[in-house]
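histidine kinase: structure, please.
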Amino acid sequence: MPARKHHRAGNRIFRAVGRRLEHFSLSSKLVACTVVLLILGASVISLSIRQFVSNYLLEKTDTQLSQQAELVYRNVDLLKERDTKQATAGPTDYFLQIRDTDDMIVTNALVPVLRYGVTSQPKLPPSGQDGGITPNEPFTTSARVTATPMADKATLQAASAQWRVLARPLADRNNRPSGTVYIGLSLSDQIDTVNTLTRYCIIVSLLIVIIGGFAALVLIQGTLSPLKRIEKTAAKIANGDLSQRVPPAPENTEVGSLAASLNSMLARIESSFKEQEATTEKMKQFVSDASHELRTPLATIHGYTELYAMQRELPGALERADESIEHIKSSSSRMTLLVEDLLSLARLDEGRGIDMSQQVPLTRLLRDAADDLHALDPERQVEEGSLQLRHGADGTLGLAFLPGQVPQISLSGDGSRIRQVMTNIIGNIHRYTPPDSPVEIGMSLLAASIGPDSLSRLPATNASLTTFLEALEVGQSMQVGMNYAVIRFIDHGPGVPEGKQTQIFERFYTADSSRARRKGGTGLGMSIAQSVAKAHHGFIVATSTDGGGLTLTVVLPVEPIVARPGQGPSLPAGGKVKAARSVRAQGQGN
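Here you go.
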């Protein structure tokens, strides 16, 4: 139980320390860790150096005792005559004690005398005892000091240093044991050397810790400065400024990789917000336009209903009732058509109401559309044919219409929806162009070096058509990419100004609202057609017809191009654009 209580107490202390550390910044933690590591490293190195030098000097002293014991014993008189007026015992200040075979002290042959008459000698076993000392094995013992009143602190400190002593057996001429000689050297010089070295190590360690801590502070702050910028950018983004971006850095670094990922994420978030805002704005406009469009037939129905109620008692009420009922029927039919178109758009926006598993014969649908236009406008000349990629006189790419047979093309998709696209386009031609103006309808299967996903994301602009034509040029020359069914409806009516050509795909947009209302248009036909094309991973673009009029280009993917044996691999996206420009430049040069 006590151990468990201690364990819980330790966990509480650890959690408390952890909570305290959470309040410190990352740079402070890193600098503190660096300083702690420097202190530990410097301490370990200093202690290692101290221990190494101490052991080395001790081994050197032991070697000196072992090698010079006999020499010192034989030159006692000479060593007694040396000058002893010094503050410390040097390496030749030997202590020498001779004992007989019974360990009785015979004489202290050498006793070092320091300055001011201070003597120092090792503490040895009392006379007559060996103290368990092993012969020929050096050992360390404390000092016995005899001081004088005049002795200074340095001399006393040197005298009190430990001794290193070696007990060496003596033998007579017949090699019989005759006693033991104790020879010792004071460790004062070794201790002084180690202490001096330790002080230097401490000073150097402090300098290393101070300089290293300052360098770590500068380096860590410099390294984390991109994170500080990221933090400031994130704060601005949190305040609603989604246009902010993290300053870039080399992507081979962690900060650079993080910055690139954050910028990519921010770009997507900003794009999503803009799309959401655009969608919300379109939805508001859509609701407003739908309310306006529905209000007109509802007001008509309500008005003629009240008119009938007011005039039913008057003479000729039956004839007026038939007229009111006819107007009510017309308005309800228009409202029914509008509601059906709205429901169709809602299903397409939600990704419903479309079946991509059907095999659709485009050629038959195109001919049916041409027949429908003939039926609507018997006087109109409708010509069918194919399309071909060509260079214009100014070097620009374009699609040329070639009268003749329409090629047989089929694709996987929703047949009724694709028929609806062609019907809506034919309906617009019928509504907005003179009934005697000619129309060309062409279709071909062309290869393009662009994927359906990329194609469906292109906006309905002239620049997008240029991008697709460049991809056609690469696909035709290198046979890479995807086969697309390219359909064109070319009219020679009043056309649409270039600035408003993209607006015809907006909901409830009508070039001539009065005429559209008279012909039964709702302003949703081209929006539905574009939604159907996008659902099939294609798109529709409106451009001006040479000589006046409007050309609608419908692009729908059919199947990937199968590489023939020996054919090279497809080019990457950048290579495709360069290849297209190169081919076009060569064509202009020829």
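Notes: The chain is about 55% helix and 20% strand.
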